[in-house]
Write a structure and sequence with these properties.
Radius of gyration: 23 Å
Structural class: alpha+beta
Strand content: 5-15%
Number of strands: 5
Largest sheet: 5 strands, mixed
Distance between the termini: 75 Å
Helix content: 40-55%
Number of helices: 16
Order of helices and strands: HHHHHHHHHHHEEEEHEHHHH
Length: 331
Amino acid sequence: MFTPTFTAVMARIYAGQEDESVAALLHAAGDGRKSHDPLALRLKPGVREFVVRQSAGLGISASGLINLILEGVIREMLLPFENQASHVYERFQLLMEAHGLGITEVATLLAPFNIRLGVLEDRARTLDYLNEETLDCIAGWFNIDADWLKAKTAAPVNLALSAHRWRDNLDHAAKSLLSADSGDIKTDVYFFRSTQHSLLNNNIDNDHHVGLYVLRRKSINGVSINTVRLFEQAPWSNEQARSQYRMLMGFCALAQTAGRLHLNTVALRPGQMMALRSGVTLPALIAFLPQTVGSLNSWRPEENLPLRYPDNYMTPEWRAIANKYLHGTND
């Protein structure tokens, strides 16, 4: 007898697995045929409500969602090598869809790699063409971790890398926000906080974080794409982080006046904040939602003071950075 916890059940399944039989069962599950023997499942009320809500939001049936989740868990547990190849294709597909690219646009975008429509229409052929060089290039275009696209890591963005940090190196952060390639068309900087907090909060707690991301519209191989560069979040409880964040807002306000970028402020749901902070989802899936496309009206006027009166928040260090990158001087 054992206590049927999730950990205990997973451990016992691992201990008793038979790779060949599992593979055969999953192959049968993937051939598109439905079982002739329906299995009745009695779900707990909370689980049932979750399944119903998510299936409705995704536009698929509740049984279809349950099947997808269960099959994915089984493959992840018992067929890790085979599952990695599936992850590469599915993550590539998700990346393109999240950025609003159709199959013809993807074919044009990847034409230099000889990935044409005929290749993209076949899963196995597409995987053959998605080699290390191609995946590295795609990851660079869309500001994601190449190892995620290669199914080696779980997080699409590695926020520990310097390219995604703004607090450790102010000079680097300013340069990253302003940097533009020859194909860049438009740059939008989004400062974000939670819907449950404000920058005027006197009751500061560790759950209150702030962050930013940059949306750039660019042309690559004749295809216009929108990309997202996500930066780290910082706890509002940290006094130094609060000061640096306001200074960064002031710098971006000066950059907007100079015509280098456009500013926006948005409020994200706590779950979205956590998803971006922990790296469990593609930033584009949140950044491109209609409700996250904001303006200076998304925050209270008092929160936007660094954007409206940037000179009041600029330290000598940030002023020197502004002169360097906005005016080409070192004064």
